[in-house]
Design goal:
The protein has helices at residues 2-11, 20-28, 47-50, 53-72, 81-91, 96-123, 132-153, 159-172, 179-187, 194-225, 284-287, 293-318, 343-351, 353-374, 386-408, and strands spanning 39-41, 290-292. It has 428 residues and is mostly helical. α4 packs antiparallel against α6 and α7 (132-153) packs antiparallel against α10. The longest helix is centred in the middle third of the chain and has 32 residues, at 194-225. The N and C termini lie far apart (75 Å).
Length: 428
């Protein structure tokens, strides 16, 4: 028994989890858990603070990687073998439909959750100083997520995939000067064919996932370095009290605030240095509002993981991923639609190619990247940010409305068709 304990201690070099030191060392000495602080604020663990959207998005990406590796064992990126492999997965491979369904619904769920996560960050003002750069990383992750979903859309090589990619790449070709060249580079030619399938496959399974993993690491690291999750707005102190104590600032520049000493703690001055002032100061009162990441944060993350996986599994049991006839360039569906997340742009392109293919996407991306640097209002309270919130809400509503119109109200020839027209009554 002593030998077993010695072997265990040589692997796990920390105190038992029954001690506070052991709980801290669990985080500090583990490379995978080091993305967490040793302690977290209690209010940050509440569901209504973040809705756990960041964790859900990350867990959906883990599902995509896991199921994607399994699907790669049965897939050949070469037409018409690609379509035949999809048929085999659908009808011959054990649990093939289930794996494909999980991959598809997790991909759609990741697009939705990344967008909702960014909306939550914006509405709570969590992109403000010092978190500006992390917002930019989040915007890049949103674009990469759309790229992952878009490149994976072609891999089944059926009619739906072929014409959706054809329409989607045509939208991008409207960009002046470089639009046509970028489309040709992406497709490996002037049309969607064998070269396009191979390039989309490489982008989907290697290039884009690597970039997502890299930026996700940066994203998690910056969350830690920028002070963790931003405090809920209802927990913020009044503006005049937010920076009562700073370290490294001239003594005459900041009024000194003396916190009441706790009777059960010992305080000592470790070092006095010069430098930039810190943005948040931990007081004895704030210290009482924190708990150890283990087990409080870890248990919640485990519950969110199980809930996310269970939801995707239940959807995969009852909702099958579509698979139409094999791609045929000679047969054009009417209407041919882009993937659902690009239908808003397709709707704009139907009115103006320049507006939908160039102006709108460029302005949206530039505006999202510039928000944290041009919004100089230091307050995160909704009452102090009304016009910014109204503009962003208009942007969100307009995008959702255009996607709904393109999905349900556009028929043959991109004509306006009420959604109930597509319902065909079968004779009894």
């Amino acid at each position: 028994m002593k030998l077993i304990r010695e072997i265990w201690q040589s692997i796990v070099r920390r105190d038992p989890l029954s001690t506070d030191k052991g709980k801290s060392e669990l985080v500090f000495l583990n490379v995978w858990l080091h993305i967490h602080p040793a302690k977290v604020k209690k209010e940050n663990l509440r569901f209504k603070h973040s809705f756990y959207l960041g964790f859900i998005t990350f867990f959906l990406f883990i599902i995509l990687v896991t199921t994607g590796i399994a699907l790669m064992c049965y897939y050949r990126p070469y037409p018409p073998q690609a379509y035949q492999d999809m048929k085999d997965l659908q009808f011959a491979v054990f649990m093939g439909p289930f794996l494909r369904n999980m991959h598809r619904w997790a991909a759609h769920g990741m697009v939705v959750c990344v967008f909702l996560h960014m909306c939550r960050v914006f509405y709570t003002g969590s992109y403000k100083k010092p978190r500006q750069f992390n917002w930019v990383v989040g915007v890049l992750l949103l674009l990469l997520t759309l790229g992952l979903s878009f490149t994976g859309y072609l891999l089944p090589w059926d009619q739906l995939a072929y014409w959706a990619i054809t329409v989607g790449t045509n939208i991008g070709s409207y960009a002046p000067l470089i639009g046509g060249q970028l489309r040709e580079l992406l497709l490996g030619g002037h049309s969607v064919g064998e070269a396009a399938l191979l390039r989309f496959y490489v982008l989907h399974v290697a290039v884009l996932p690597s970039l997502v993993i890299l930026l996700t690491i940066v994203h998690f690291w910056r969350v830690r370095k920028d002070g963790g999750l931003s405090r809920p707005v209802w927990k913020l102190k009044p503006q005049k009290q937010e920076a009562l104590v700073t370290i490294g600032a001239p003594a005459e520049a900041v009024p000194l605030h003396v916190a009441a000493a706790s009777t059960d703690k010992t305080y000592g001055l470790m070092e006095v240095v010069t430098g930039k002032p810190i943005f948040e100061t931990i007081t004895p009162e704030e210290e009482e509002d924190t708990v150890f990441s283990y087990p409080y944060a870890f248990v919640r993350e485990a519950v969110v993981l199980m809930g996310t996986v269970t939801t995707i599994m239940m959807m995969s049991l009852f909702m099958n991923a579509p698979l139409e006839e094999m791609a045929n360039p000679a047969v054009t569906p009417n209407p041919a639609k882009a993937p659902w997340y690009f239908l808003g742009l397709q709707e704009l392109v139907s009115h103006s190619a320049l507006l939908g293919g160039v102006v709108a996407p460029a302005l949206m991306v530039l505006a999202l990247l510039a928000i944290p640097y041009f919004d100089r209002n230091p307050s995160r309270r909704p009452g102090d940010r009304k016009w910014v919130l109204w503009v962003f809400t208009l942007f969100v509503v307009a995008n959702i409305a255009l996607i709904i119109v393109g999905t349900f109200f556009r028929g043959p020839g991109w004509a306006w068709v009420p959604p109930w027209v597509h319902v065909v009554a079968r004779p009894e």
